[in-house]
Amino acid sequence: MNWETNTVQNLKVCAASKQKALQGLDNTTSGGMGAIDTLLKLVTKLETFGISHESVEKLKDSLHVINQFLKFEYKLHLNKLDGFTDHCTTYALSDPSIPGFSSSCEHQHDANYDKCSLVDNVLDLITTELSKVQVNESVQDDIDFDLNSATKNLLEWKRHLLRTVHQDAARNDILKNLTPNQSLIIMDWAMKFFPVQFRETQSEFFGKKGLSWHISCSVTRSASSDELDLNCYIHILENGTQGCPGGRYGVDCENSCPQNCHGPCDLQHENCLFGCLDGWLDQKCATACRDGTFGGNCLRKCSANCISDPCNHVTGECERCTNGWKGFNCTTECSKGKFGLDCSESCDGCIESTCDRFNGECVDNSGCKPGYENGRYCNKTCSTGKYGLDCSESCDGCIESKCDRLNGDCFYSYGCKPGYEYGRYCNRTTPKCDKGKFGLYCNESCDGCIESICNRCDGVCIDSSGCKPGYEYGPYCNKTCMNWHFGTNCTKICYCLNNPCEKNSGICSDGGCKKGWHGQSCDEECSKGTFGLDCSESCDGCIESACDRFNGECVDSSGCKPGYEHGPYCNKNTQMSLPASSGTAIRGGISAAIMIIIIKIFEVNYVI
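Below the sequence we write its predicted structure tokens.
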């Protein structure tokens, strides 16, 4: 059994089936289908720009008709003798400027075909409608780019279909004129044996691993029978690839393609076969877009609203936007109430929050919203204690004078300042209080203030130079002296015997002082020579009458005055009180004493 028999049997068992997954879809066809999708998106946007819904739906329907026509019908109408220019392959493929590529037709091109004309007509209509749109420059650039790219790809798809039909016709001509000594050899990769479940372009399909078929066919003409002989050779590569795997090149696929290639690269020279990823140029896709451009083939311009640095050369993203713009590429105007760089500032104080989106100046210059001071920008809010139009009203009755700057509603809802009746706004004052009184119902006193004069609302002393005696200094003079203190600012101390003194006058109520003190307020130390309670005791026996004022102990402990027994207090007098008798008795007594002393002296000397 030869190889031809085996091949025929295999083909009978594995009969060809309808291709559903279009694996290996060529790039031109893929680009044309993508162009239809892009045009549908642009047409959908027209309705947001004011074009009627009916007109938009009509254009959508026409695009769907064009898509189906180019996919299934257009190739059936193409031939060399058609009277419609788009169907006549001779006319369409001729170039009058190059004799070698120029042919003339022997028929007139006066026929018309609605569906073929529909392609050009719809493109013209979409272009006309989009030209009426009033948008900023950056948005218009995006629209123009999408429209031009889609138009180019759609027309290229149509040309590709025409070339395909002409190519098939040319192959038939070659076979018809083939001589016995000639051979037509066709070599190509067949589709992968295993189907896929999604569409792939050639660039995506190229180099994928799988069961690849490489087919070589030779067509010859028999000299005896004038029939064509077909010999095909099939090479099945298990787990092989068509060329190098994606992203590799070289004799043994040992090198990596440039990272910015859109698909595979040339197996020998590293050049990117299907162009570059967005943002890159040249054959090896190693050159970034020049400043101010980005995207596929660097054909798109950066938004003029990017601030300082150029946009990202791949995506077109701006780092920051100039005044009045926001968004990924700074093509979106600031929304109402916003302005400035990246639309990051607010003009909430302007009437209806409407301001110039570039500098924030209010459109309505008649005034500002309540809660803002009048000005060109209405950007200064009311200070604490102020609210309303132009911040002209006060909320002094609110606690800490804090209120809603729009309507004056008090921030703290649990009460009002003294002197104001309780309510949401604390804006009604209570009746005027008598001297020395203050508070909501004038039931609090400010007796510590000089002349008892204070603010009737909060009790702050009018005279801030000090307070009455018996009170500590402070704005309210409402803190009395601590026990045992009295006088101005409570700086004096009293040493009353049992109970504290009066805090304003310092008078001791029990009439006595502790040891070492005397006086009306018991704040005077004992004078020299006195000590004890109320300084009522004397220390006359101490030298110079100097003693401790608390317990009477002599300061000079070396001795006592004459007539006092030596001791810590020198409080014992040595002179005794004698009866008033005759002088002779006294003298006799003295003489006897002298004699005794003399005798004692002699006794001492004798002993020695």
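The first strand starts at residue 183 and ends at 189.
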